[in-house]
Amino acid sequence: xxxxxxxxxxxxxxxxxINYLSSIRERNVLSNVLPYDVINQLPRQIxxxxxxxxxxxxxxxxxxxxxxxxxxxxYFNAFYPSSTSAGSIIGELLIAGIGVLGFSWICSPACTELxxxxxxxxxxxxxxxxxxxxxxxxxxxxxxxxxxxEAVLVAVLAAREQAVxxxxxxxxxxxxSEIRGKLIAYxxxxxxxxxxxxxxxxxxxxxxxxxxxxxxxxxxALKQAIExxxxxxxIPVICIASLGTTGTCAYDDIESLASICEKNQVWxxxxxxxxxxxxxxxxxxxLRRGLDRVDSLNFNLHKFMLVNFDCAAMWLRDANKVxxxxxxDRIYLKHKHEGQTQIPDFRHWQIPxxxxxxxxxxxxxxRTLGAEGLRAHIRKHITLAKQFExxxxxxxxxxxxxxxxxxxxxxxxxxxxxxxxQLLQRLMxxxxxxxxxxEHCGQLFLRxxxxxxxxxxxxxxxxxxxxxxxxxxxxxEQQVNARKAGELSELTHHLSGxxxxxxxxxx
Length: 507
Prior knowledge:
Layout: H1 3-22, H2 53-64, H3 86-98, H4 109-125, E1 141-145, H5 148-170, H6 176-180, E2 183-188, H7 193-201, E3 206-209, H8 219-231, E4 235-242, H9 254-263, E5 267-271, E6 296-300, H10 301-304, E7 312-316, H11 319-326, H12 358-394, E8 398-400, E9 408-413, H13 417-430, E10 436-440, E11 443-449, H14 457-506
Parallel strand pairs: 2-3, 2-4, 4-5, 5-6
Antiparallel strand pairs: 1-7, 6-7, 8-9, 9-11, 10-11
Helix pairs in contact: 3-12, 4-12, 5-7, 5-11, 8-9, 12-14, 13-14
């Protein structure tokens, strides 16, 4: 493909994206395909000869798109948003076109230095403590990871290695394997599954502590668990708190958890993958309480910052603890400016060696939207969620299961769980909107998250009409089934009576 054809392909692809996003409301948010439908439409080997890009785009439209769940649709109301924007899309295109790997400063100085700048921009935008800034004198700073899962794993691994080194110095009578066998970590039973996975990958048990009735993890629960484990000879290492739990977007009590962690030399990490965006809003300033006392935290830009997946920000109070844990130097990674400046080599701050130029799409997104645009986007999600919450409250057939939190509303149909389950089943079959279910204290409920590239009030009305209509159908069907069951019971009773009468007559 020469540059002329590349230009045609590129222009056509941009038009394809624009047409897809501008007409996304016309598509069912969920796919109609069955398992293997896509596989069976594709050849089983690489084509021997080059194919024209027009045929590729045609197959993308006819084979691939029908097999997708449309995450940028405003009718995607499951999980949490995974947003994008025009600036981010262009940024991703430029990242691929420039094609650099920024694992060290010398590999592409601008790649590293732009990341330093945008991470400080973001820390200031979110009103984070100054010790998380690169420009601040000290060992702290921010780095872009791929996802919250990677950030949590980095924190868990670093905390583990720091604990092992500390214990080997203070208890030389213990072997390294004996120490590692005693390590234990903590989180809430409301936390994301990636935290449990981090424990598996780190070969360190993570105890999920029971949250309170309001789904919040507090210091008392952590204190009790640590005391029991220390008495049993275990070594507490790290607590992973959540600001915005997966189920209901509950906020753990960072202040009380920090007090316990500080007393017990336990690393405190905060997973603010979703709710972290609200740090930028003064009306949500209470969410920032205690962040000055945590060792690390993460926030997904691909949830609230209109930067497409994957892009997760992570800040460290003392980056040296991660660098010391992960540092492996080879001669081919060294350069003459190494150690002469405070500019980081981010390969030491992450799991992989290679690094994508994610800072470029962050930089472009922030410049095309501005701080004002970013704050307006977050506030819009909150406003739309309030609109949905008001609709739930106005229909006596529904009830809220938890307080509305940012862009998330948790609700259910009143009555037994079967009604809510059947409602979700009908919605999934119709594929007009997409929600997922969760459970708390035996109650099944639905999560309605405001998502999509550009959700509007009319989209909330559309979703609510769909929900109301399908609940009406569920209730009508239940009434019909109940009536049929009653008639069948009466008939069975009547026939049973006739049988007894016939026996009596025969006698």
